[in-house]
Amino acid sequence: DKISSFLMTFGKVAFHISRPVRWDSDHVIRQNDDLRACAQEIVKMGPENFIVALDYFDASINRVAAWVLGMRNMQKELLKAMLVPWKDLTKLQDTGALTAQLVLQEEYKNYPVDEVWAEFCKRNGVVADESWFKAVEKYEKDVLLKR
Length: 147
Fold this sequence. Notes:
Blueprint: H1 2-10, E1 13-17, H2 33-45, E2 50-54, H3 63-83, H4 86-94, H5 98-107, H6 113-123, H7 132-142
Parallel strand pairs: 1-2
Helix pairs in contact: 2-3, 4-5
C-alpha cells in the first residue's frame, strides 16, 4: 500500500535492496519473503517506475561470489514475479471470487520457474546452476589472492 501511494505522489521509487545486517557484515541478497515482496511490487507496478540498487558486501566471503549470488537471486525473484498471473488475480479479487483467488495464489507458487530460469540463462549464455561458482573460485585463486 505504501509503495503504490508513493508512486502516485512522486512517480518513481528508488529501492536499495540489501539483506539486513545481523551480527556480522552480511549484506548478501538472499531469496526470502522480503525480496519476493519487493520483486512482486516492481513487476505489478511496472519496472519503469523503479530504480533498483543492490548491495553485495560481505567481509566474510568472496565478494565476487556475493555479487553474482545477489544479482542472480534478484533476477530469480523478478522472474518468479513475472510468472504470477496478476491480471487473473486482480479480476478474481474485483469480482469477489476470493476462494478462487486463494486457490490461484497457492497454485502459482509451484509454477515451473526452474525451467524458465534455465531458458533465461541459456539465452544469455550463462549457466543456470551453481557451477558458476567454479569460475569465481578460479578467479579468486588466479587473480584476487595474488593482489
